Amino acid sequence: MRRPLVLGNWKMNGTKASNAELIEGLKAAAAGVDSVTIGVCPPAVFIAQIQELAGDSNICIGAQDVSVHAGGAYTGECSADMLKEFGVSYVLVGHSERRTYQNESDELIAKKFKATQDAGLVPVLCIGETLEEREAGKLESVITTQVNAVIDAYGIEAYKNAVIAYEPVWAIGTGVTASSEQAQEAHALIRKLLAAKDAEVAAGMQILYGGSMKPGNAAELMAMEDIDGGLVGGASLVAADFAGIFNAAK
Ligand SMILES: O=C(CO)COP(=O)(O)O
């Protein structure tokens, strides 16, 4: 049985004041929820604040990005060890917004995945197709390439301590959610790809859905066999909405 995981990706949102209000609301809503792992991924500059606010609550902290380097002359970068010092346990790698706006390649993303693991943190590999790719019948080939980038570089063992988030690009921030059948189809495909290499890794992998997940559609999505939680954008910025989602994962 895979444990549900619900992560909020705040993207580039928040102020010190709004963060405090949001975390206060989440702590109250998450208290006593012990069957779901709940986490928030704030912008890097706020991680220290969130660590302090979250205290010893059951809210985990994730980062939105990491450097491939361990340290040194890399202006603007932030290493996995630095994130770890501030209580980070998950790191998003390969989010479609970074693939698009920062031109991140599968090769670079695999390196970030490895740098995260080397520091003892859990990478959350984000994958997913664009609308154009879906309409051209390329869902399977896009997902296969994105999943295999890590296997080709580091072997299937690298997926032993990792999470995969399936986020169809056309569903992110658009209000258009993949139907539970469309999401399940992609998740099953991802699990099948892993199973072809290692059945145990495939069976244990938490595969999250992301893309306009809301309290109103979360239960149906997460009831699907291969959907083990959510990576939530917009709805994670409102405590009641995010709570509605992690409560639906119970
Ligand atoms: O990109 C996402 C999470 O990483 C999804 O964003 P939305 O939930 O705002 O569609």
TrEMBL record:
Catalytic reactions of this protein: D-glyceraldehyde 3-phosphate = dihydroxyacetone phosphate
Alphabetized UniProt keyword annotations: Cytoplasm, Gluconeogenesis, Glycolysis, Isomerase
Catalytic site positions: H95 (electrophile), E167 (proton acceptor)
Domain of life: Bacteria
Main EC class the enzyme belongs to: isomerase
Residues forming coiled coils: none
Pathway where this protein functions: Carbohydrate biosynthesis; gluconeogenesis; Carbohydrate metabolism; erythritol degradation; Carbohydrate degradation; glycolysis; D-glyceraldehyde 3-phosphate from glycerone phosphate: step 1/1
Subcellular location as annotated: Cytoplasm
GO biological process: gluconeogenesis; glyceraldehyde-3-phosphate biosynthetic process; glycerol catabolic process; glycolytic process
General function of this protein: Involved in the gluconeogenesis. Catalyzes stereospecifically the conversion of dihydroxyacetone phosphate (DHAP) to D-glyceraldehyde-3-phosphate (G3P).
PANTHER family the UniProt entry points to: TRIOSEPHOSPHATE ISOMERASE (PTHR21139)
Assembly with partners or alone: Homodimer.
Entry protein name: Triosephosphate isomerase
The species this protein was found in: Corallincola holothuriorum
